[in-house]
Design brief:
265 residues, alpha+beta, Pnp Oxidase, Chain A, 9-stranded antiparallel β-sheet, 9 helices, 9 strands, 28% strand, globular, Pyridox_Oxase-rel, Split_barrel_FMN-bd, BQ5605_C003g02498 protein
């Protein structure tokens, strides 16, 4: 099994201002626009929780790089370990590739605006992003070795990560066929970082001093956001909309608000 000491090259950086931060990896340390880098767990996990879909990168058994969109759920344990659960069809490439100690990289991105500047070179994006590195961890290490119980727990956590209390408001006892058809990855997070850009146009002095250019060029930001719409029932849905469905819009918006850095004091 690969471990953090051998698979990832660590770098000794000062994290005294981030008591709940990850020990930084050289591969995750921000060099360009370093001020945009964040290493506190609260922000990193909030960004992952706020995105409907993450992207998971891995190298398959043929040695080819792969990247797939997946739903992710974060679980923080009492002994301060952090796991990410990923689920999908058991016949997909990533599930077949899921052995113990396999390295994975997860990315999550929220885009808030396009930044329009005086020149195309200085156009940019306002964003909040997170990158997590870790290795797959066996389900047999929990629930006293009861792999099926651990897998059901992972599915419970993943379902409620999409919509709180959804597991409890469905037929939540998976059949043997459903368990066989569903693959679950348990990733132990070993290092992570976030990067946030909340800036506006930042043009060069020579362009700002060009009166003709400034006069004729619109600059600013084009903000946008992803929102949750009104629930749309199926043809066989129950008539009354349950509270966990009514609360989904507010929950979705709350996750987005939580995924910003703490205001500087």
């Amino acid at each position: 099994m690969l471990n953090e000491e051998t698979h990832f090259e660590k770098t000794k950086l000062n994290t005294v201002n981030h008591p709940l931060s990850y020990f930084l990896l050289s591969s995750l340390t921000r060099h360009r626009y370093a001020k945009r880098g964040h290493y506190d767990k609260r922000l990193i996990f909030a960004i992952v929780r706020a995105v409907p879909v993450v992207h998971v990168a891995f190298v398959d058994r043929d040695g080819l790089p792969q990247c797939v969109p997946m739903v992710a759920a974060i679980e923080e344990t009492e002994d301060d370990e952090v796991f990410v659960y990923l689920h999908g069809s058991s016949v997909t490439r990533i599930m077949k590739n899921n052995g113990e100690g396999e390295p994975l990289c997860i990315t999550a991105t929220l885009v808030d605006a396009f930044v329009m500047s005086l020149t195309p070179f200085h156009h940019s994006v306002r964003y909040r992003s997170a990158v997590l590195h870790g290795t797959t961890f066996p389900f047999s290490e929990s629930y006293d070795g009861d792999v099926e119980a651990a897998k059901v727990h992972a599915l419970h956590v993943t379902t409620n990560a999409i919509c709180s209390q959804r597991w409890e408001n469905t037929r939540s006892s998976p059949t043997s066929a459903e368990m066989k058809a569903t693959g679950v990855i348990r990733l132990r997070v070993e290092s992570a970082s976030a990067k946030v850009n909340e800036t506006g146009p930042n043009d060069e002095a020579k362009d700002l001093n060009n009166e003709e250019l400034v006069t004729k060029t619109w600059t600013g930001i084009l903000p946008f956001k992803m929102v949750a719409g009104d629930p749309q029932p199926s043809s066989y849905s129950c008539k009354e909309v349950p509270s966990h469905i009514r609360d989904f819009q507010a929950e979705f918006e709350a996750k987005d608000r939580a995924a910003f850095p703490e205001p500087k004091k």
